Amino acid sequence: MLEHVPGWLGAMLRSVRAGADKLVISHRTLGDFGYIELSSSAFANGAPIPPRFTADGAGVSPPLVWGPVPEGTESLALIVEDFDAPSPQPFVHAILWDMPPDRHGLAEGAIVPDGAGSATEGDVGINSYRREGWLPPDPPYGHGLHHYAFQLFALSGAPDPGESPGRSAFLEAIEGHVLAAGLLIGTYDRDVKAPVAGGAATQPA
């Protein structure tokens, strides 16, 4: 939807950004926690997200893989946020809840509404458009580079955030339960050419 914002308006809002300090993983109420290695075969940390995983392509969620989680982990949870969104809080692009602790990754396209997915993948929360599933990156033209933070949490319990939780319910539920977390950041910019599989480049539509 944000791709329909006129370029001139995106340029005027270029300095309006939520900020990395607003990310869930940065929230002071989470306390101290360990580290989980989180990565994707689709893009490196800090590198551009290929258009396939954005609103300019197929719009499927990217594959993710993570390393060992701490002993005592009872469940895993994931939230993906755009901290360059022109809003007071980061835009939520996905929430995935109650994944089993022995899971070590997500396949491409795995973040879909509960009704269309597998119960073994975990419960899906709502994104900033109030829909379940993956919200593909769609930054406004003219707004510049956007950063998308994939945040994985190993939890000491399996607290119930309610049905189809949003960002606030997610944060409230994990407080006091985070043993470790992983962070992977991908970028996207509609104003520059973006890489595709095989190293070629394409101009976003």
Task: Describe it.
- The protein is mainly beta and 205 residues long.
- It is built from two helices and eleven strands; from the N terminus they run H-E-E-E-E-E-E-E-E-H-E-E-E.
- It has a six-stranded mixed sheet with strand order 1-9-8-4-5-7, covered by helices on one side. The protein has a three-stranded antiparallel sheet with strand order 2-3-6, with no helix packed on it. A two-stranded antiparallel ribbon has the order 10-11.
- A hairpin with a 5-residue loop joins strand 10 and strand 11.
- The protein is globular, with a radius of gyration of 16 Å.
- The two termini are 13 Å apart.
Task: Provide key terms for this protein.
six-stranded mixed sheet; mainly beta; 11 strands; three-stranded antiparallel sheet; 205 residues
The helix tally amounts to 2
Overall pLDDT score: 85
Following the backbone from N to C, one meets helices and strands in this order, namely HEEEEEEEEHEEE
Describe the strand arrangement of the main beta sheet, using strand numbers.
Answer: 1-9-8-4-5-7
> Uncertain runs with pLDDT below 50, 5 residues or more?
4-13, 197-205
The helix/strand class is mainly beta
Relative strand content: 25-35%
Strand segment tally: 11
Q: What separation lies between the terminal Cα atoms? A: 13 Å
What can be said about the biggest beta sheet? Answer: 6 strands, mixed
Helix content percent band? under 10%
Rg, rounded, reads 16 Å
